[in-house]
Amino acid sequence: MALAAKLQLRQSQSLVMTPQLMQSIRLLQMTHVELERFVEEEIERNPLLERAETVEETGDAGAAAEAVPTGEWNGTEAGWSAETMSEVFDSSLENMFPDDPGTAVRLGPDLSAQWKSAGTQGTPAGGDDFDLEEIFASRITLRDHIAEQISVTITDPIGRLIAHSLADGLDEAGYLRDDPAEIAAQLGAGDDAVRAILKTCQTFEPAGIFARDLAECLALQLTRRDRFDPAMQALVGNLDLLARRDFQALKRLCGVDEEDLLEMMAEIRGLDPRPGAAFAGGGVADAIVPDVEVCPASDGSWAVELNSDALPRVLVDQAYFAQVSGRATDPVEKEFLSECLQNANWLTRSLDQRARTILKVASEIVRQQDAFLLRGIRHLRPLNLRTVAEAIGMHESTVSRVTANKYMLTPRGVFELRYFFTAAIAASGEGEAHSAEAVRDRIRQLVEEEPEEVLSDDSIVDILRREGVDIARRTVAKYRESMNIPSSVQRRRERRAQAAACR
């Protein structure tokens, strides 16, 4: 068999993605906080970019006239059209990829002592660099809180080293996830020494810290209260029975009557199962800023508008570019300025396109879920991404990116856009299908309003079928468990316990 070289011509199509186009797709999926952070970074890197508010505050009318805004969203036409976008990018942004596969009271020392002793004459003790805002913005972490107690309680240097190694193994809830035997092997210390230091660390605040499981965490807190007697030990050792509300077995194991058992359960409920959660996060959670606002219009329809607070407005300073580019003689400088102008124009167009796409998707969601806005969750319609994508002429992946981590302010509250997309449950007759979220809400209401006789899952199925919902028992059980609603057996036991406590 002879081998020979051949020349062949093949014609194929492929989507070439430029870095800017890929970044435009990422912009579509960014949250409000991520977008603000990205725009700030671009403004720092690009001297031709500036915030629109900067021009308005300084009153520089000339700069405002020379600048190019991203577009207004109060009903007027924006400055960039779809034709302009297609000329700049390799492909439309709308047809890209398939779909991508309890805080407790704050513990620890009072930071206000750092500034209250700063002096009585109004001069901070720290000098000119003293920043009161920075002190109050800081938050004590769990590791800092533990480190302070280690330095006060443990004086031996080796003991402190072991204690800090144990503290490194704590998770956000305050549980010790590392094996003390492994820590002893890593440090070359004896197992007895590590256990002794661990026992000392378990006396730290908050109570229950350094526990290795929930039972030990509760035991440490009960021991601190001098309430870890044999009956309570039996109760803590059988938390699985407590979760199942098996009161008969618990009374037998603990050797107490029903009244004592109820008191012990009330005491367990008063404990903190996550003692380290007060220090978790290390900062303030980001506030939800709705991207879209929906309100009733005068003609009886719904007015859908973009929230201006969630849209960063960026201007391109053309006057500054003309001034600097005229004086630039070095080819490197000219290339830098040209690249800055290109990136600035790209950012304004991308923000404009992002805003248009969000508004288009949100408007279609409002149109589809009009009954929900008027009458509540029971009238939420089944909806999927493909339905919205076909209605507005976009790709399903684009709708998926737009609805990720975006929020809508409606007369019924703030909802994530993904909330309006729910599975369909068939009707028992010839009626329309029901939304899974509406069925879940109905199950919740039935349980909350159930009569003296507790409703079983089969009873809930019968009620829903009489109301026109064709649903299986396993689906009711799945929805009930997703809402953390106990089974009928557990609810019956809980009701008996409550009745006994009231007697």
UniProtKB/TrEMBL annotation:
Listed Low complexity bias regions: 60-72
GO biological process: DNA-templated transcription initiation
Source organism, top-level taxon: Bacteria
Region annotation Disordered: where it falls in the sequence: 57-77
Entry-linked Gene3D superfamilies: Homeodomain-like, RNA polymerase sigma-54 factor, core-binding domain
GO molecular function, one term: sigma factor activity
The keyword DNA-binding belongs to this UniProt entry's keyword annotation: yes
Keyword tags: DNA-binding, DNA-directed RNA polymerase, Nucleotidyltransferase, Sigma factor, Transcription, Transcription regulation, Transferase
RNA polymerase sigma factor 54 DNA-binding domain: residues covered: 335-493
Ranges for domain RNA polymerase sigma factor 54 core-binding: 132-320
Annotated Gene Ontology cellular component terms: DNA-directed RNA polymerase complex
Cited PANTHER family: RNA POLYMERASE SIGMA-54 FACTOR
Family: Belongs to the sigma-54 factor family.
Protein name: RNA polymerase sigma-54 factor
Organism whose genome encodes this protein: Pseudaminobacter salicylatoxidans
Lineage per the UniProt record: Bacteria, Pseudomonadati, Pseudomonadota, Alphaproteobacteria, Hyphomicrobiales
